[in-house]
Structure formats: C-alpha cells, structure tokens
Amino acid sequence: LYFLDYYGCGKLDVKVASQVVKGIADGCQQAGCALIGGETAEMPGMYSEGDYDLAGFAVGAVERDQILPTPDIAVGDVLLGITSSGLHSNGFSLVRKVISISGLTYQSPCPWDTNTTLGRALLEPTRIYTSQVLPAAKAGHLKGMSHITGGGFVENIPRVLPKDLGCYVDASAWALPPVFKFLAQHGEIAPLEMARTFNNGIGMIVIVSPNNVDA
Predict the structure, then answer these.
(1) In this structure, what DSSP letter does residue 2 have?
(2) Region 53-69: what's the mean pLDDT?
(3) Is 164 exposed, middle or buried (0-12, 13-18, 19+ CB in 10 A)?
(4) CB 108 within 8 A of CB 118
(5) Beta-bridge mates of residue 38
(6) ∠ CA 51-52-55 to the nearest 5 degrees?
C-alpha cells in the first residue's frame, strides 16, 4: 500500500538526498506502492561528514484467507527459486573483509564485468519481486514464500516450513553468478557458509504443490 522513509545525517546534502529519494521512489514504482512521506533529521555531531543513515518500512494488506504460509505445506511440494540481481544488501560485513584481502579496491574494474567498477557491481540494487509473485499469490498458486535475505537458505527457508518438515535445495539446478564465485574464491568461503550468508543467485523461493509448478 505505502512506504515511509527515514533519512538521518549531520548536515543535509540536497543533491545526495535527492538521489536517495529518487531511488526510493523508483523502488516504490516497481513494488506498486505509494511513497507517502517520511522524516529527514539533521543531527550535527552524530555523523561524520558525508555519512547518512537510511531506514524505511512498507505497509501492505492481505485477505485473511490468503495469508502465507498455508497450513497444508506437505511432503512432495516443490521449491521454486527466482533469480536475484546480486547481493541484495546482505552479507556486506563479509564482503568488505573479502575485498580487503583480495588486493582490489572498490574503484578497481569489476573482475566479471569490466564495464563497471567492483564497488558499483557489489551495490547492484535489490530486485523487487512484487510483479512476479503477487499474481501467483492472488491466484492461490503459492503455499509459502521465503525471501532469501540475511541468513541465506539455511535460516530463511525453514521459517516457512512446518516444524516437522525439511527440504532439499539442489544447488546444481542453477549457475552460481560471478559475484558469488568471486567472493567464495577470494575469501576461501566454505559452501555451507556461503549458503548461510548469501542468496547465491536466488533471491526468492516460493513453495507450490507439484500440480502448480508450471502454473
């Protein structure tokens, strides 16, 4: 339905703040919700020069009989993955550590896309899934959804499953995007830690019955 934001800084830089608000407005358009306002706070002495703090929240509505997950998730149901656009704002403490030992800087040419810098590639905006997922949810095709954010597959998928049910994720079913190969290689990150920290190319997982896989 709508989104509100909070922007905190030491001294307002109108040019930077305008770019931030434009990005928020673009995201709201993608999600089909209204940006109805927010708060901007100047707090001298609380922030270093050029730093700012950004937060926000969205409010939506759902009919009671369409709330997910449904109680009938069962053995034999299928997990379908929807691709991510990149890191999706998660795992950046580890990302910063990997970059610090990689011999590269954020201004270096991106190893997997020389048309941009490494820093810009790492900050690829998070994909918003409203247009892909909402029609299927309204049609009743989905039993559950899991947004793969902090905690990766390991922590997010179990949250929507019944307590007595587990699942298998076939990691060979999709190609690991270059950004995650780079991080795993340069950080010597074990596969389980990758699965616990990053989305690894799958930003949203939906749970469907076998007869709705192609719906």
Answers:
(1) E
(2) 94
(3) exposed
(4) yes
(5) 5
(6) 150
Which residues 6+ apart lie within 8 Å of 121 measured at CB? Answer: 86, 110, 112, 113, 179
- pLDDT tier at 215 (50, 70, 90 boundaries)? confident
Place of tokens 């509100």: 4
> The whole model's pTM is what?
0.89
Does residue 136 carry a pLDDT above 80? yes
Tens of pLDDT along 141-198?
999 999 999 999 999 999 999 999 999 999 999 999 999 999 999 999 999 999 999 9
Q: What is the mean pLDDT of the chain?
A: 95
8 Å CB contact between 87 and 120: no
Task: Using alpha carbons, select from 33, 65, 66, 68 the residue that is nearest to residue 205.
Answer: 68
Tokens of 190: 């074990």
Distance CA 152, CA 194 (A): 8
Amino acid at 113: D
Residue tagged 């830690």 (tokens): 193
Instruction: State the DSSP code for 158.
Output: G
Q: Is the peptide bond before 69 cis (omega within 30 degrees of 0)?
A: yes
| Angstrom distances, CA of residue 65 to CA of 32, 140, 147, 148, 172 | 22, 10, 21, 24, 35
